[in-house]
Structures are given as C-alpha cells and as structure tokens.
Amino acid sequence: MRRALASICLLALGLGGCVGADQDELKAWMSEVRRDMRPQVQPIPAPKKFEPFVYAKADDDDPFNPVKIEAALQKLAARSSTGIKPDLDRRREALEAFPLDTLKMVGTLQKDAVRVALLRADGGIFQAHTGNYVGQNFGVITRITETEVTIKEIVQDASGEWVERISTLQLQENQR
User: Fold this and answer.
1) How many CB atoms are closer than 10 A to CB 162?
2) 3-class state of residue 103 by DSSP
3) How far apart (Å, rounded) are the C-alpha atoms in residues 164 and 154?
4) Between the CA of residue 6 and those of 9, 12, 41, what are the distances in Å?
5) How do residues 135-170 score in pLDDT, each as one tens digit?
6) What pLDDT score does 129 carry?
7) Which domains does the chain have, with CATH numbers?
8) Average pLDDT of the residues in 103-122
9) Looking at residue 135, what DSSP letter applies?
10) Alpha helices in 1-158 (DSSP H)
11) How many CA atoms lie within 13 A of 137 on its CB side?
C-alpha cells in the first residue's frame, strides 16, 4: 500500500514539473500577441440636437373644444338613420370565438322540419341552428340548406355606421 501511494506521489511531482517548463514559452507568446494586437473601437456618434416644434396655430379654433366635440357627436347621431346596431349585452355563443373564414360547413342533419348545420372550427364539429350566432362580426344564421348556411352579419362601414352584410358558408366536400 505504501509503495502504491509513494509511486502516485512521484508521478504527480513528475507531471507538475512538466507543466512549469511549458508555461514560460506560453507566457512569452501571450506577451507578443498582446503587444501586436490593438482593439478597434468605433467612436460613439454625437447625439442629434433636439429642436422643439413650435405650434403656430395657437390662436385658431381648438379642435378639442368640448362644445365642438358634442356638436359633432350630435350630428353623427342624427345622421345614423339605419337604427342597426349589434346587441353587445347578450351572452356570446361558442362559434363567435372563430372568424367566419375559419369555419367550414361539413354537413347537415335533419329531424322532422328542423335542419341543423354541422360546422368545423378548430378541429371540432359544432351543431348550429337557425338563429345561432357565428363569427366575430355579430353574424346570425338566417337559413340552412343542404349545401350552404346563410349568415347575416352586422359590420361597421367606413363612416362608422352599422350595416348588414350577407355571407354564406358552402358545404366542403371531401374533407379528410
């Protein structure tokens, strides 16, 4: 046991001596590399001078005057003669979470005189009756046939008024 321990100690001392000899050469090489290398640092550009904007129309009419805003809102309310607006207080249905272009009609079911549309959305199949809401534009199903579902949506036009738009979902065949 003593011989094994003594031989391990001699081996460690021998290897320690080998390392010291190579370090002088390594230190000399590192000094030479440091002397030749100079890092290149790009100078930071000077900041741009801030020039404040002077509003020269201070004497003109204030566009944010509450009296003017109220008058404009009354004019818009008077102009809105269609009376169409979505019911924002009703509870949302499951198919209203999906945009209309992601819904696919995959079939129909009929029992007695009631026809039900089968709509695929997000990997699941949903049953939809006439009067159910679908899509994100307050769409309501108005008619279900064997080949299509007709939907009446309520959307805002460019002037901000609510208008009705008719959309259809066609039966998607060979969807596997």
Assistant:
1) 15
2) coil
3) 5
4) 5, 10, 55
5) 999 999 999 999 999 999 999 887 778 889 999 999
6) 94
7) 62-176 (2.30.30.830)
8) 92
9) T
10) 2-36, 66-79
11) 16
Tokens coding 12? 């460690």
Where are the alpha helices (H) located in the chain, listed in sequence order? Answer: 2-36, 66-79
Secondary structure string (H, E, C) spanning the chain = CHHHHHHHHHHHHHHHHHHHHHHHHHHHHHHHHHHHCCCCCCCCCCCCCCCCCCCCCCCCCCCCCHHHHHHHHHHHHHHCCCCCCCCCCCCCCHHHHCCHHHCEEEEEEEECCEEEEEEEECCEEEEECCCCEECCCCEEEEEECCCEEEEEEEEECCCCCEEEEEEEEEECCCCC
Q: pTM (2 decimals)?
A: 0.54
State which amino acid sits at residue 75: K
Structure tokens at 116: 């039900």
Measure CA 10 to chain center.
68
Residues 32-54 have a mean pLDDT of: 86
Residue with tokens 């008058």: 71
